[in-house]
Amino acid sequence: MSIAYLNGEYLPLAEARISPLDRGFLFGDGIYEVIPYYSGKSVGLVPHIERMIDGLAAIEIKCKKSADEWKVLLDDLIARNQGATNNLGVYVHVSRGTDVKRFHAYPENVEPTIFCFTFGIKDPEPVDREKVHAYTVTTSEDLRWKRCHIKSTALLGNVMHFQQGHASGNSECLLYNAKNELTEGSSVNAYIVKDGVVITPIQDNQILPGITRRIIIDSLKAEGSIKVEERIVSMDEVYNADEVWISSSSKEIAPIVQIDGKPVGDGKVGPVWEAAFRIYTDAKFTHS
pTM for the whole thing? Predict the structure, then answer.
Protein backbone atom coordinates (compact mmCIF):
# COMPACT_ATOMS: atom_id res chain seq x y z
CA MET A 1 0.00 0.00 0.00
CA SER A 2 1.23 3.47 -0.88
CA ILE A 3 2.58 5.59 1.95
CA ALA A 4 1.28 9.16 1.97
CA TYR A 5 2.25 12.30 3.85
CA LEU A 6 -0.40 14.41 5.60
CA ASN A 7 0.41 17.36 7.83
CA GLY A 8 3.66 16.03 9.24
CA GLU A 9 2.70 12.35 9.40
CA TYR A 10 3.51 9.42 7.12
CA LEU A 11 0.64 6.94 6.90
CA PRO A 12 -1.01 4.47 4.49
CA LEU A 13 -2.80 6.38 1.76
CA ALA A 14 -6.11 4.64 2.56
CA GLU A 15 -5.95 6.06 6.09
CA ALA A 16 -5.38 9.71 5.11
CA ARG A 17 -8.28 11.96 6.18
CA ILE A 18 -9.08 15.66 5.90
CA SER A 19 -11.93 17.72 7.32
CA PRO A 20 -14.89 18.45 5.02
CA LEU A 21 -14.34 22.09 6.02
CA ASP A 22 -10.90 22.10 4.42
CA ARG A 23 -10.88 24.94 1.89
CA GLY A 24 -9.28 22.70 -0.69
CA PHE A 25 -12.40 20.54 -0.50
CA LEU A 26 -14.91 23.41 -0.34
CA PHE A 27 -13.36 25.91 -2.75
CA GLY A 28 -10.49 24.23 -4.60
CA ASP A 29 -8.41 26.76 -2.64
CA GLY A 30 -4.92 25.40 -3.06
CA ILE A 31 -1.90 24.69 -5.23
CA TYR A 32 -0.60 21.35 -6.49
CA GLU A 33 2.31 19.78 -8.31
CA VAL A 34 3.00 16.43 -9.99
CA ILE A 35 6.66 15.43 -10.11
CA PRO A 36 8.02 12.33 -11.90
CA TYR A 37 10.77 10.13 -10.49
CA TYR A 38 12.40 7.40 -12.58
CA SER A 39 14.18 4.82 -10.40
CA GLY A 40 14.62 7.45 -7.72
CA LYS A 41 15.82 10.23 -10.05
CA SER A 42 13.52 13.25 -10.23
CA VAL A 43 12.78 15.33 -13.31
CA GLY A 44 12.58 19.06 -12.66
CA LEU A 45 12.27 18.76 -8.89
CA VAL A 46 13.69 22.19 -8.10
CA PRO A 47 11.66 24.03 -10.78
CA HIS A 48 8.51 22.18 -9.61
CA ILE A 49 9.12 23.27 -6.02
CA GLU A 50 9.87 26.83 -7.11
CA ARG A 51 6.64 26.97 -9.15
CA MET A 52 4.66 25.66 -6.19
CA ILE A 53 6.15 28.26 -3.85
CA ASP A 54 5.37 30.97 -6.42
CA GLY A 55 1.79 29.68 -6.73
CA LEU A 56 1.30 29.67 -2.96
CA ALA A 57 2.55 33.26 -2.82
CA ALA A 58 0.23 34.26 -5.68
CA ILE A 59 -2.85 33.13 -3.74
CA GLU A 60 -1.43 34.25 -0.37
CA ILE A 61 -1.13 30.85 1.31
CA LYS A 62 1.56 31.10 3.95
CA CYS A 63 3.46 27.82 3.99
CA LYS A 64 6.56 27.72 6.18
CA LYS A 65 8.45 25.01 4.30
CA SER A 66 11.56 26.10 2.44
CA ALA A 67 12.58 24.70 -0.94
CA ASP A 68 15.18 22.51 0.79
CA GLU A 69 12.61 21.19 3.26
CA TRP A 70 10.27 20.32 0.41
CA LYS A 71 13.05 18.46 -1.37
CA VAL A 72 13.86 16.41 1.75
CA LEU A 73 10.17 15.59 2.28
CA LEU A 74 9.57 14.46 -1.30
CA ASP A 75 12.79 12.44 -1.56
CA ASP A 76 11.86 10.75 1.74
CA LEU A 77 8.35 9.95 0.48
CA ILE A 78 9.82 8.40 -2.67
CA ALA A 79 12.18 6.26 -0.57
CA ARG A 80 9.32 5.07 1.65
CA ASN A 81 7.50 3.90 -1.50
CA GLN A 82 10.41 1.91 -2.94
CA GLY A 83 11.09 4.64 -5.47
CA ALA A 84 14.68 3.53 -6.04
CA THR A 85 13.42 0.56 -8.05
CA ASN A 86 10.18 1.97 -9.46
CA ASN A 87 8.95 4.81 -11.63
CA LEU A 88 6.73 7.00 -9.47
CA GLY A 89 4.90 10.28 -9.69
CA VAL A 90 4.45 12.41 -6.59
CA TYR A 91 1.27 14.42 -6.17
CA VAL A 92 1.78 17.41 -3.85
CA HIS A 93 -1.25 19.35 -2.64
CA VAL A 94 -1.24 22.40 -0.36
CA SER A 95 -4.61 23.90 0.54
CA ARG A 96 -5.28 26.98 2.62
CA GLY A 97 -6.36 24.71 5.47
CA THR A 98 -9.42 24.04 7.58
CA ASP A 99 -11.63 26.79 8.98
CA VAL A 100 -14.60 26.48 11.34
CA LYS A 101 -17.06 27.78 8.74
CA ARG A 102 -17.58 28.12 5.00
CA PHE A 103 -16.74 31.72 4.11
CA HIS A 104 -15.21 33.01 0.88
CA ALA A 105 -12.65 35.41 2.37
CA TYR A 106 -9.24 34.05 3.35
CA PRO A 107 -9.34 32.99 7.01
CA GLU A 108 -6.68 34.12 9.45
CA ASN A 109 -4.57 31.93 11.73
CA VAL A 110 -5.25 28.75 9.77
CA GLU A 111 -2.44 26.31 8.99
CA PRO A 112 -2.21 24.97 5.42
CA THR A 113 -3.08 21.35 4.75
CA ILE A 114 -0.12 19.53 3.16
CA PHE A 115 -0.88 16.24 1.45
CA CYS A 116 1.42 14.15 -0.76
CA PHE A 117 1.19 10.66 -2.23
CA THR A 118 2.90 8.58 -4.89
CA PHE A 119 1.54 6.61 -7.83
CA GLY A 120 3.08 4.42 -10.50
CA ILE A 121 4.00 5.94 -13.84
CA LYS A 122 4.90 4.20 -17.08
CA ASP A 123 8.40 3.86 -18.49
CA PRO A 124 9.48 6.70 -20.80
CA GLU A 125 8.52 6.30 -24.43
CA PRO A 126 11.23 5.07 -26.81
CA VAL A 127 13.15 7.70 -28.75
CA ASP A 128 11.85 6.18 -31.96
CA ARG A 129 9.13 7.70 -34.11
CA GLU A 130 8.18 4.26 -35.43
CA LYS A 131 7.51 2.90 -31.92
CA VAL A 132 6.32 5.85 -29.83
CA HIS A 133 2.67 6.08 -28.81
CA ALA A 134 1.02 8.83 -30.87
CA TYR A 135 -2.00 10.84 -29.76
CA THR A 136 -5.12 12.28 -31.33
CA VAL A 137 -6.83 15.45 -30.09
CA THR A 138 -9.94 17.51 -30.53
CA THR A 139 -10.14 21.32 -30.21
CA SER A 140 -12.29 23.80 -28.33
CA GLU A 141 -12.43 27.46 -27.39
CA ASP A 142 -10.65 27.91 -24.07
CA LEU A 143 -13.39 28.55 -21.48
CA ARG A 144 -11.25 28.32 -18.35
CA TRP A 145 -10.37 31.21 -16.03
CA LYS A 146 -7.82 33.93 -16.84
CA ARG A 147 -5.17 32.87 -14.34
CA CYS A 148 -4.01 29.64 -15.93
CA HIS A 149 -0.42 30.47 -14.95
CA ILE A 150 -1.38 29.51 -11.38
CA LYS A 151 -1.40 25.73 -10.85
CA SER A 152 -4.59 25.77 -8.82
CA THR A 153 -6.34 22.69 -7.47
CA ALA A 154 -9.59 24.19 -8.82
CA LEU A 155 -9.49 22.23 -12.07
CA LEU A 156 -13.14 21.94 -13.13
CA GLY A 157 -12.58 23.99 -16.29
CA ASN A 158 -9.67 21.75 -17.26
CA VAL A 159 -11.63 18.62 -16.38
CA MET A 160 -14.56 19.65 -18.57
CA HIS A 161 -12.26 20.33 -21.53
CA PHE A 162 -10.42 17.05 -20.99
CA GLN A 163 -13.79 15.28 -20.93
CA GLN A 164 -14.57 16.82 -24.34
CA GLY A 165 -11.52 15.09 -25.72
CA HIS A 166 -12.16 11.84 -23.89
CA ALA A 167 -15.84 11.66 -24.86
CA SER A 168 -14.93 12.13 -28.52
CA GLY A 169 -12.43 9.26 -28.39
CA ASN A 170 -9.35 11.48 -28.26
CA SER A 171 -6.47 11.77 -25.83
CA GLU A 172 -6.63 15.52 -25.24
CA CYS A 173 -8.37 18.77 -26.14
CA LEU A 174 -6.29 21.61 -27.62
CA LEU A 175 -7.60 25.04 -26.65
CA TYR A 176 -7.72 28.39 -28.41
CA ASN A 177 -8.73 31.86 -27.24
CA ALA A 178 -11.29 34.30 -28.62
CA LYS A 179 -8.74 35.47 -31.19
CA ASN A 180 -8.39 31.91 -32.55
CA GLU A 181 -4.90 31.63 -31.03
CA LEU A 182 -3.57 28.42 -29.52
CA THR A 183 -3.24 28.50 -25.73
CA GLU A 184 -2.53 24.95 -24.49
CA GLY A 185 -4.33 21.67 -23.85
CA SER A 186 -6.60 20.81 -20.97
CA SER A 187 -3.68 19.21 -19.09
CA VAL A 188 -0.68 19.88 -21.34
CA ASN A 189 1.38 22.57 -23.05
CA ALA A 190 1.32 22.61 -26.85
CA TYR A 191 3.75 23.09 -29.75
CA ILE A 192 3.80 23.10 -33.52
CA VAL A 193 6.66 22.42 -35.90
CA LYS A 194 6.91 24.20 -39.26
CA ASP A 195 9.89 23.92 -41.60
CA GLY A 196 11.99 22.45 -38.82
CA VAL A 197 11.23 25.23 -36.30
CA VAL A 198 9.57 24.38 -32.96
CA ILE A 199 6.98 27.05 -32.07
CA THR A 200 5.07 27.31 -28.80
CA PRO A 201 2.73 29.99 -27.40
CA ILE A 202 4.29 32.72 -25.30
CA GLN A 203 4.20 32.35 -21.53
CA ASP A 204 1.40 34.52 -20.13
CA ASN A 205 -1.70 34.15 -17.97
CA GLN A 206 -3.36 31.92 -20.60
CA ILE A 207 -1.00 28.97 -20.09
CA LEU A 208 0.67 27.08 -17.29
CA PRO A 209 4.44 27.61 -16.98
CA GLY A 210 5.03 23.91 -17.57
CA ILE A 211 8.21 22.45 -16.14
CA THR A 212 8.52 19.96 -19.01
CA ARG A 213 7.98 22.91 -21.38
CA ARG A 214 10.82 24.74 -19.67
CA ILE A 215 13.16 21.76 -19.92
CA ILE A 216 12.28 21.29 -23.60
CA ILE A 217 12.94 24.93 -24.48
CA ASP A 218 16.12 25.16 -22.39
CA SER A 219 17.57 21.89 -23.69
CA LEU A 220 16.79 22.62 -27.35
CA LYS A 221 18.30 26.09 -27.12
CA ALA A 222 21.39 24.75 -25.33
CA GLU A 223 21.93 21.96 -27.86
CA GLY A 224 21.40 24.36 -30.73
CA SER A 225 20.42 22.16 -33.67
CA ILE A 226 16.68 22.89 -33.50
CA LYS A 227 15.36 26.45 -33.57
CA VAL A 228 12.71 27.36 -30.99
CA GLU A 229 10.29 30.29 -31.10
CA GLU A 230 7.92 31.46 -28.36
CA ARG A 231 5.19 33.56 -29.99
CA ILE A 232 1.50 33.77 -30.77
CA VAL A 233 0.35 30.70 -32.73
CA SER A 234 -2.86 30.87 -34.75
CA MET A 235 -5.09 27.85 -35.12
CA ASP A 236 -4.59 28.07 -38.89
CA GLU A 237 -0.90 27.43 -38.18
CA VAL A 238 -1.84 24.48 -35.98
CA TYR A 239 -3.94 22.88 -38.71
CA ASN A 240 -1.19 23.43 -41.29
CA ALA A 241 1.75 22.40 -39.12
CA ASP A 242 4.22 19.69 -40.13
CA GLU A 243 4.14 18.32 -36.59
CA VAL A 244 2.18 19.03 -33.40
CA TRP A 245 3.26 18.00 -29.91
CA ILE A 246 1.95 18.21 -26.38
CA SER A 247 3.97 17.99 -23.17
CA SER A 248 3.48 17.38 -19.48
CA SER A 249 5.34 15.78 -16.60
CA SER A 250 3.60 12.45 -17.24
CA LYS A 251 3.57 12.51 -21.07
CA GLU A 252 6.99 14.16 -21.51
CA ILE A 253 6.85 15.11 -25.24
CA ALA A 254 3.96 13.38 -26.98
CA PRO A 255 3.42 13.58 -30.76
CA ILE A 256 -0.03 14.37 -32.17
CA VAL A 257 -0.95 12.71 -35.46
CA GLN A 258 -4.59 13.76 -35.79
CA ILE A 259 -6.57 16.91 -34.91
CA ASP A 260 -10.37 16.95 -35.16
CA GLY A 261 -10.20 13.81 -37.26
CA LYS A 262 -7.72 15.24 -39.78
CA PRO A 263 -4.06 14.17 -40.07
CA VAL A 264 -1.23 16.36 -38.87
CA GLY A 265 1.22 16.66 -41.77
CA ASP A 266 1.49 13.22 -43.33
CA GLY A 267 -0.30 11.65 -40.36
CA LYS A 268 2.90 10.12 -38.97
CA VAL A 269 5.19 11.04 -36.10
CA GLY A 270 7.76 13.47 -37.46
CA PRO A 271 11.56 13.56 -37.46
CA VAL A 272 11.79 16.80 -35.47
CA TRP A 273 9.88 15.17 -32.61
CA GLU A 274 12.39 12.31 -32.55
CA ALA A 275 15.39 14.65 -32.56
CA ALA A 276 13.87 16.90 -29.91
CA PHE A 277 12.84 14.01 -27.68
CA ARG A 278 16.38 12.62 -27.82
CA ILE A 279 17.78 16.01 -26.73
CA TYR A 280 15.17 16.31 -23.96
CA THR A 281 15.80 12.76 -22.74
CA ASP A 282 19.53 13.44 -22.46
CA ALA A 283 18.91 16.66 -20.49
CA LYS A 284 15.85 16.01 -18.32
CA PHE A 285 17.66 14.90 -15.15
CA THR A 286 19.89 17.97 -15.13
CA HIS A 287 17.03 20.23 -13.98
CA SER A 288 16.63 18.67 -10.54
Answer: 0.96
